[in-house]
Predict the 3D structure of the following.
Amino acid sequence: EQAEKEAAELAAKEQAEKEAAELAAKEQAEDYVFKSWFARLGSGLSKTSSIIGSGITKALTSKKLDDKALEQIEENLILADIGAAAASDLITSLKNHKFEKLDEKIVKEKLAEIISESISSVSVPLTIEKSDTPRVILFSGVNGAGKTTTIAKIASQEISKGKKVIIAAADTFRAAAVQQLEIWSQRVGAELVSGAEGSDPAGIAFKAYDRALETKSDLLLIDTAGRLQTQTNLMEQLKKIHRVINKKDETAPHHRILIVDATAGQNVLNQIIAFKEAIDINGIIITKLDTSSKGGIIISISNNHKIPIHAIGVGEKQEDLNIFESEPYARALLGLEIDDY
């Protein structure tokens, strides 16, 4: 009888612990969803902001913004992958400002303002124009940049606006890529057009465009195999996909978006040059800003290439991809409050 009682108590205790854990997980998930984009952006860029912030703290120990202090700040801006030329320009602007008072917060506020102004021209949301024929977005990028999940997030966002979306699985090298897109397309409610493993990616794109016309779809999103900018044969294949779609509609692909992984740092600049040369990219989406301390790469991109940055990603979830706005980004980069900017 005693043993039965103890077993019942143990079972009740385990059940209570299980319920408490489930409740905590549910609350955590709700907290995440209700956490504003700005809050997620701030925590996503925290690795970068701590590097820049520590430079400012160190620089102001003397309570003066002299050449030595400015040099210290510049050094930390370069460490955050802002790039030497862009960092130098920012420091020149900071040096030219007359501060009435001097403390960390004031310097950070001013630097955020300077950064925001310097990159505002590349902050351009992705707008899909209304049309009688399908709008086509061709996605490209190196392996592991996050193309497939980014495509799924964009598909979901556009479907929620009432658009009919088709996804073309033109990464025929990896069976896993097609499987991943199958799962995502079912989840978000998009139709997937794919082919046999190893089949011609341009053929898939061609078939998907015909299907988009047939079903009167608003949008065709084309996923392509990850490729290094140095892989000539794969870059030629990307050009072929572009040519095939362009024959169908001489204004297409309307958006040629390069997905770049922030963790690649300054190598991203070389990727942009190569993909611009191959398919004349006219938009950029930056992923994985939360996984590295190289969040300053956006400033470097803006300084070197005047290509619109449509969106940035700070996590795996759908809500973690959002339009790129210069002011919230600059404030997050400096670890400043952005909810009420």
User: Anything to note?
Assistant: Residues 2-34 form one domain. Confidence is low (pLDDT under 50) at residues 29-34.
